[in-house]
Amino acid sequence: YGKNTIKFLRLHREGKKHVAKEVEVCAHLRLTSPQEYLEGNNSLVIPTDTIKNIVLVLAKKNGIPSLEQFAIDICNHFMTTFCQVAYVKTYVQEVPWQRLHEDGVPHIHSFICVPDGIRFCEAEQCRNGPLIVFAGIKDLKLMKTTQSGFEGFYKNEHTTLPERHDRILCGELFCKWSYGECKDFDFDCIWKKIRECILEAFAGPPDCGEYSPSYQKTVNCIQMLVLSRVSQVQVIEVVLNNTFYNVVDMKNLGLTNDKEVLVPVEAPYGSCACTLGRKKFFEA
Q: Which interval of the chain is the signal sequence (predicted)?
């Protein structure tokens, strides 16, 4: 049991400069005894309102140095404070506020919400067990208007999809990775590096791009690039929900539409998912 959607804005002031971080937290506990379920005995139950207040107090006392560290702080607090807690899991996601810039100069106290992917993390721990940390990015919408196709696929009497060697590749990406054994990582730096890997693998070189034969191959390229460049990542999951575009037929309007006006196909949409990890992690 626990408390969901604990939302708050944490401000840190460095003189006139303000640092703002708005987050949403979910904190769930499992107790050493199920007596509240089986017997109606609430003597060990930590009220969810108390859970909420603890999260807010930790934000006040410790700040939010990184999403991952804040999630770790919450787990550590419940494990060290309450002997009846057998397991704790914390989820934290961030509202994507970015500092405003005017003529390249960062503003000291103004921000803009930029929906270019939502950062999140999870931390979970069993009593006498290791602390496990996950991180990720979701709702990241990506598109490239060429250098993508889909050919040579299996066909039977139910196949109506034509082969395409030049199409738009567009989708909403979810990516989650595991750090394995939690160490003193620079979580902010690692998250930014992984995000850069995602964008690079999806788009290819800026002057020419890179051909994608399928959504599946693009997913794999993202995972392989992250694992090759970020040694702290042990397992990475990627889900790409696809958006398809159809060229509008303008012959009746007396126009030739050479893939200049397209409309999105709202539903149904495709989805590709894959989990990839280092061999030593799975063997362990």
A: none
pLDDT digits (tens, 9 = 90+) for 124-150: 999 998 999 999 999 999 999 999 999
Does one domain contain both 162 and 264? yes
- Domain of 218 in residue numbering reads as 142-281
For residues 139 and 257, give the distance between their C-alpha atoms in angstroms, rounded to a whole number: 31
Same domain, 153 and 276: yes
Is 150 known to sit in a ligand binding site?
yes
Q: Is 282 annotated as a binding residue?
A: no
Is residue 273 domain-shared with residue 146, that is, in the same domain?
A: yes
pTM: 0.92
pLDDT < 50: residue spans in the chain: none
CA-CA distance, 122 to 118, in Å (whole number)? 14
CATH of the domain at 173: 3.10.270.10
166 among annotated binding-site residues: no
Query: Is 174 annotated as belonging to a binding site?
Result: no
CA 61 – CA 74 distance, rounded (Å): 12
- 48 annotated as belonging to a binding site for a ligand: yes
> Which tens digits make up the pLDDT trace of 58-110?
999 999 999 999 999 999 999 999 999 999 999 999 999 999 999 999 999 99
Q: 101, 129, 157: which is the final residue of a domain?
A: 129
**Any known ligand binding at 49?**
yes
